[in-house]
Specification:
The complex is a heterodimer of chains A (264) and B (109). Chain A is 38% helix and 24% strand. By secondary structure, chain A is of the alpha/beta class. The model of chain A has no long low-confidence stretch (mean pLDDT 88). Chain B has a single domain (2-107), classed as STAS domain (Transcription Regulator spoIIAA, 2-Layer Sandwich). The mean pLDDT of chain B is 95. Helices cover 40% and strands 30% of the residues of chain B. Chain B has helices at residues 25-37, 54-69, 81-89, 102-107; strands spanning 2-7, 12-20, 42-52, 74-77, 97-99. Chain B is built from four helices and five strands; from the N terminus they run ββαβαβαβα. Chain B is globular. Chain B is an alpha/beta fold. The chains are: A alpha/beta (264), B alpha/beta (109). The A-B interface holds A 111-114, 116-117, 120-121, 124-125, 127-128, 157-159, 186-187, 189-192 and B 21-22, 25-26, 29, 51, 53-55, 57-59, 61-62, 82, 85-86, 88-91.
Chain lengths: 264, 109
């Protein structure tokens, strides 16, 4: 039987009068890599923020490892976050700390591990992302790809049950990107992590995903295996896969209303 | 986590089992370092390890380094598949001395 790491039910998020996520429901299974795709403005980032507990939805529920994160107390969220790792798109490294210090931060904050253990764990993770020679560099001395790899090392330093990765391949050369894809698969297979990846990169998505969820205009258009997505007959999915520019099916009244509506 | 130390004739045998994670790895580290302090070679049986994270691996590495400095033999025995996968991910399968039988470790002493 497949066990869910995350259950998303009837999720609705409004920003003012704009509906960003509209009745999203799906499960993320334990030990799978799920890739969330969609065009700009599809709601991917908002969905990620909700699942991370950074944004309260307008309505709906998200259960992560059995905890209702929309209604959890601060302490519950704190405990849950120890089981989560997040690699942000731009790295989000602390600029006043070296690469190694950035990576060690979660261990120093959340554990009482011996200093030797912390140092060895840091080097193991740096080696996994091919960043071991750069442990003493400051974030300002890193390239975009190096920052991204350092951010991944920090995200996995506590061997999280659930790893979130926002745009792993964006801005990387093809070789580094392929290495990162391979590492993501290895993390799933060896450390049994559940991995949620948000990406625009089709090649990377199809290389790593067990399932792909496609969002469009705040709705879940389709979720399925890479094969099912490839064979989709949905126009919006085909447009995304074929990189077809969006058709300008403009409703005159709706457009006028958008331009004149008082959103203040 | 199971972590039981047996004293054999000319070496110590540490039997590990279950899940070794951030919670239990300090106990593993302590057991390894305490055994090495006695000055005997150490063989770690990992046949029943169902999961080991990087903090557990770090304890094994520190033990290896300590044994090397003290010129003591240090080996891993019958590593379970989940544990071997993690060692391979960290390329430490090429660093540790790994044995499928305790007698082979003993023969090297």
């Amino acid at each position: 039987m497949t066990t869910s790491a995350i259950e998303i039910r009837d999720l609705v998020v409004d920003y003012g009068t704009r509906r960003i996520l509209d009745d999203i429901s799906f499960d993320i299974h334990q030990g799978e890599i799920i890739v969330i795709m969609g065009g700009s403005g599809a709601g991917k980032s908002t969905l990620l923020r909700c699942v991370l507990g950074l944004k309260k939805p307008t309505s709906g529920h998200i259960h992560m490892l059995g905890t209702d994160i929309c209604h959890a107390a601060r302490e519950e969220l704190y405990e849950l976050r120890k089981k989560m790792g997040v690699a942000f798109q731009q790295g989000a490294l602390f600029t006043s700390m070296s690469v190694a210090e950035n990576i060690q931060l979660p261990l120093r904050e959340h554990t009482d591990l011996d200093e030797n253990t912390i140092q060895i764990m840091t080097r193991i993770k740096l080696d996994m992302v091919n960043m071991l020679p750069y442990e003493n560099l400051m974030p300002s001395e890193l390239s975009g790809g190096m920052s991204k790899r350092a951010a991944l090392a920090r995200a996995i330093i506590m061997d999280p049950k659930i790893l979130f990765f926002d745009e792993p391949s964006a801005g990387l050369d093809p070789i580094t990107s392929a290495e990162l894809d391979e590492l993501i698969i290895m993390l799933k297979e060896t450390l049994k992590m559940t991995i949620i990846v948000v990406t625009h990169e089709l090649e990377s998505a199809f290389a790593i995903a067990d399932r792909i969820a496609i969002l469009g205009e705040g709705k879940l258009i389709q979720i399925g295996t890479p094969e099912e997505i490839k064979n989709s007959q949905d126009d919006r999915v085909m447009d995304l896969l074929n990189r077809t520019p969006r058709e300008n099916n403009m409703d005159k009244d709706e457009h006028l209303s958008r331009l004149t509506q008082d959103n203040r | 986590m199971k972590c039981t130390l047996h004293s054999e004739n000319d070496y110590d045998l540490l039997e590990l089992g279950g899940e070794i994670d951030l919670h239990y790895s300090p106990d593993l580290r302590e057991a390894i370092l305490a055994s090495l302090k006695e000055g005997k070679p150490l063989l770690i049986d990992m046949a029943d390890v169902s999961y080991i994270d990087s903090s557990g691996i770090a304890s094994l590495v520190e033990g290896f380094q300590t044994a090397k400095s003290a010129k003591l033999a240090y080996g891993l025995l019958k590593i379970s598949d989940p544990a071997l996968q993690v060692l391979k991910l960290t390329r430490l399968d090429r660093v540790f001395s790994i044995f499928d039988e305790a007698e082979k470790f003993q023969a090297q002493l």
